[in-house]
Design a protein that fits this description.
Strand content of chain A: 25-35%
Largest interface: A-B, 23 and 23 residues
Radius of gyration of chain A: 17 Å
Order of helices and strands of chain A: EEEEHHEHEHEHHEHHEH
Active site (chains A, B): 147 (charge relay system), 223 (charge relay system), 256 (charge relay system)
Protein name (chains A, B): S-formylglutathione hydrolase
Shape of chain A: globular
Family (chains A, B): Belongs to the esterase D family.
Largest sheet of chain A: 9 strands, mixed
Number of domains of chain A: 1
Oligomer: homodimer
Helix content of chain A: 25-40%
CATH class of chain A: Alpha Beta
Function (chains A, B): Serine hydrolase involved in the detoxification of formaldehyde.
EC number (chains A, B): 3.1.2.12
Chain lengths: 278, 278
């Protein structure tokens, strides 16, 4: 692991790191905020998964999580959204597929299977790296994310309920199998059989019996992707049927940007901190 | 004035606007955050002047001012740092001069005098535009900034003590006339006679009799520009001699980045809000 940069912030340290990822077969970059409480021992870890077109840097620059994470004593880890580099298959003119659009799946189709293994990356390789190199209490992990990363957070939590104590999302893609901006990606990464997509679809995972105790979801009503791409009511229906507690908050006039995310960041950090305490 | 974008944030509206500037003889872009209190009447205006290489966007993205500005009821206006465009004289390989480096002066030398009139722009043309188009209480204005913009805030306040009720700075260039990264710019904008630079140098303005009631200045001790470019002790000496109250806070291990600025943003907003109240 290489340190790209570190900078003191709110009494803690915001760092950027890179490493040669075996899982993704390329160099990967990620950001970690270590709160001041870490000098006294391991702290809980909160994973933030970003949306389409993002890298680790978007939420680091615009997410406004450091002030309260420093107060609450939360480490915040921000992975990239896909494998990167000239050797990684891509569709340069398509922002909904390829680099910047890994969808947190393990691709099975060529030429993507070699690098596009973001599910294993964020659930196995990167956690091992964090555990080995940072003062992280891996028995207390939460996960959240935005849009494609909200999809990532919900699916990762539903598939690993024993590992995560908390999960929330900002404007998540709740049913990627049937949304226009995600279905083609699932098809290219996972093949034409839609049965293979269910393992990466929050609502269908719930239909198939996966469970997580409770979710917090914020969704802006002025979000241009609400009706076609996001459709939180599908998650509401699935959770209601399954008896999963969902706090879905429709936020008047908020859009899909980091102005929306940063507005409700404090609420999400407190939600996680309460569930990661002790 | 054209609206480039608006986005709800923390109950207020973060907007970006552009206009054909007469003073700078080019199109200029700026950002304004209007807090929710503005629906009940005009609110105080806080001007943030940015540093070298920045546009209006850096502090808008990374400054983390909206949460508390929304709570305190402050409008925050963020101008660009220079004139812009293909028709504007520039030194493309020099980040300390030309576009992105207007130094908040009115240039007198060719070919800069036509466009590089950032002093008049931020003290006359843009305030008139803000007053005409936003719910701004122009009787309650404060000003702050970072680095080159800290220099801008201090000099603008010292030259307009009746207009501003508060002034603060993050890591300001306190004596640009003698610092390596600013002296060549003053020479090119204002000519070879260093007497002409004094009107744009905070410490020399104080030596020449300009006054402002009090300043808050934060400065990181790990700031790579501290000893050569910033030198806050020169401001401390000038203020002490002049009887100006200066709260200079050296912040251990903080650098020159927005991680430093955002950490102390709340303190500065509260400083201004107290002085702009009522």
């Amino acid at each position: 692991m290489k340190t790209v940069s570190t900078s003191k912030s709110h009494g803690g340290v915001q760092g950027v790191y890179s490493h040669a990822s075996e899982v993704c077969a390329c160099d990967m970059t990620f950001a970690v905020f270590v709160p001041p409480q870490a000098k006294d021992g391991p702290v809980p870890v909160l994973w933030y998964l970003s949306g389409l077109t993002c890298t680790h840097a978007n939420v680091m620059d615009k997410g406004e999580y450091r002030r309260l994470a420093a107060e609450l004593g939360l480490m915040v880890v921000c992975p990239d959204t896909s494998p990167r580099g000239d050797g990684v298959a891509d569709e340069k003119d398509n922002w909904q597929f390829g680099q910047g659009a890994g969808f947190y799946v393990d691709a099975t189709q060529e030429p993507y299977a070699k690098n596009y293994r973001m599910y294993s990356y964020v659930t196995e390789e990167l956690p091992a790296l964090i555990s080995a190199n940072f003062p992280a209490d891996m028995s207390r992990q939460g996960i959240f994310g935005h849009s494609m990363g909200g999809h990532g957070a919900l699916t990762v939590a539903l598939k690993n309920p024993g590992r995560f104590k908390s999960c929330s999302a900002f404007a998540p893609i709740v049913q990627p199998s049937t949304a226009g901006w995600s279905k083609p990606a699932l098809e290219k990464y996972l093949g034409p059989d839609s049965a293979d997509w269910r393992a990466y679809d929050a609502t269908l995972l719930i239909d198939d019996g996966n469970r997580f105790p409770e979710f917090l979801v914020d969704q802006g009503t002025a979000d241009g992707f609400l009706n076609e791409g996001l459709r939180p009511w599908l998650l509401e229906e699935a959770c209601e049927k399954a008896g999963i507690a969902l706090s879905l908050r429709m936020q008047d006039d908020y859009d899909h940007s980091y102005n929306f995310i940063s507005t409700f960041m404090d609420d999400h950090l407190r939600w996680h901190a309460q569930r990661l305490a002790g």
